[in-house]
């Protein structure tokens, strides 16, 4: 394997679960990081330390623990802002996950208490998504269209698994209010071209959002350089904890958006008949936030920053090239998605002729300790587009090795023998 500048063996020692033996003495081979990444000891210990020694509610208590907890929580916001290149740390809103971040933005459109015309939506207006979206970037926009009478439209996907931009000018028009697409597909591995879509969005005066749940963990993402209006990702895919996600949005848009949830902390003043709201980001963080999870997320992005996202990209590029070559030698196996490495991440989904993905996954786990994802990966419309009910998905991260890919390949040959 080409030296990518990543000391994988040292990194693996930070993830205790990767040394675990499954029943029967099988070593764990974890190829499901597209679903959820494993957590390094540094993240686990930081969360334990905060919970054990520093925990209190944030922004309220006038005592030492409250001050320590608030400082740790807000320091995490600083770290996340730096990690994604946010110009202003107050552009980082902590949410429960990426799904909540996407819903938060969808809620802002067509909300009767919103006053900004950019967020007014009704019959005749249009929302544009794509056929390769995760359900989290489909269902909120469907609900918005149903609520407002707006029309939902979408980009199609080419046979090679790329976003079809051939009708960009016809799809994104003066009627378009928001375009929300995935940055990197959780099924195909495709990294979508942002610049041409954004240029058209700006031309018609619309807004643009990226679901970056798969891109932020695996490549260097700079929101200022991308130039979009909104971006969402989730903590558990960036070697951080579950229960916390991130919405980044341009400051002036956050200021214009109505709050998503009402309660403590998001207010400025409350009377019995009305309330005024705190400035962003606190306007969108009602109630007790995920304090310990934020601390863990801050340590997670520190961990990735210290390793270097360029090294992560190179490592995953080599793993993906190795995997595509190896899978290409298996009879009856078809990769769903790009077969070249251009604008492609470390997620490979495939079918085995005549064998259901659920059977593939079960045999890989039971006999080889290989953990992969099977099903439609919360992207059923994409699978319908390719005329298949489900796929098997192997997804890689900084702690995976070519030896683990070899185990996957041996397992797939065994699956074929079982069903011969």
Q: Which geometry do the CA atoms define?
A: globular
Biggest sheet, spatial arrangement of strands: 4-10-9-8-7-5-6
| Total number of strands | 17
Our Rg estimate from Cα atoms comes to 22 Å
Helix content: 25-40%
CATH class of the largest domain: Alpha Beta
Q: Kindly identify the CATH topology of the largest domain.
A: Aspartate Aminotransferase, domain 2
The biggest sheet amounts to: 7 strands, mixed
How many distinct domains? Answer: 2
What distance separates the N and C termini?
32 Å
CATH superfamily of the largest domain: Type I PLP-dependent aspartate aminotransferase-like (Major domain)
The chain-level structural class is alpha/beta
**Spans with pLDDT under 50 lasting ≥5 residues?**
none
Number of contiguous helices: 14
Q: Can you name the CATH architecture of the largest domain?
A: 3-Layer(aba) Sandwich
Percent of residues in beta strands = 15-25%
Mean pLDDT: 96
């Amino acid at each position: 394997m080409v030296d990518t500048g990543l000391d994988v063996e040292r990194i693996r020692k930070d993830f205790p679960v990767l040394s675990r033996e499954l029943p029967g003495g099988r070593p764990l081979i974890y190829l499901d990081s597209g679903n959820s990444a494993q957590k390094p000891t540094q993240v686990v210990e930081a969360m334990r330390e905060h919970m054990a020694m520093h925990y209190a509610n944030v922004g309220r208590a006038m005592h030492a623990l409250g001050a320590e907890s608030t400082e740790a929580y807000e320091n995490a916001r600083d770290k996340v802002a730096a990690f994604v290149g946010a110009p202003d740390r107050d552009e980082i809103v902590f949410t429960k996950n990426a799904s909540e971040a996407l819903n938060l933005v969808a809620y802002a459109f067509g909300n009767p208490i919103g006053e900004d015309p950019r967020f007014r939506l009704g019959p005749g207006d249009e929302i544009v998504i794509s056929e390769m979206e995760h359900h989290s970037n489909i269902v909120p926009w469907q609900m918005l269209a149903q609520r407002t009478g707006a029309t939902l439209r979408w980009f199609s996907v080419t046979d090679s698994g790329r976003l079809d931009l051939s009708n960009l000018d016809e799809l994104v028009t003066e009627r378009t209010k928001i375009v929300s697409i995935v940055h990197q597909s959780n099924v195909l591995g495709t990294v979508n071209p942002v610049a041409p879509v954004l240029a058209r969005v700006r031309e018609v005066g619309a807004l643009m959002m990226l679901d970056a749940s798969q891109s932020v963990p695996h490549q260097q993402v700079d929101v200022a350089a991308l130039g979009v209006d909104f971006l969402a990702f989730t903590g558990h895919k960036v070697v951080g904890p579950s229960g916390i996600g991130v919405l980044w949005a341009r400051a002036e848009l956050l200021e214009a958006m109505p709050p998503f949830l009402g309660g403590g902390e998001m207010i400025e003043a409350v009377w019995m008949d009305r309330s005024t709201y705190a400035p962003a980001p606190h306007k969108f963080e009602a109630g007790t936030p995920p304090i310990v999870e934020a601390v863990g997320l801050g340590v997670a992005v520190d961990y990735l920053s210290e390793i270097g996202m360029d090294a992560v990209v190179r490592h995953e590029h080599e793993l993906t090239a190795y995997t595509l070559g190896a899978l290409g030698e298996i009879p009856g196996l078809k990769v769903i998605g790009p077969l070249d490495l251009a604008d492609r991440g470390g997620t490979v989904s495939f079918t085995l002729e005549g064998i259901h993905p659920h059977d593939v996954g079960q045999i890989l786990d039971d006999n080889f300790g290989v953990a992969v994802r099977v099903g439609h990966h919360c992207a059923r419309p994409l699978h319908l587009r390719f005329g298949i009910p489900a796929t098997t998905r192997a997804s890689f991260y900084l702690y995976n090795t070519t030896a683990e890919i070899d185990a996957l390949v041996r397992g797939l040959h065994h699956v074929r023998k079982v069903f011969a």
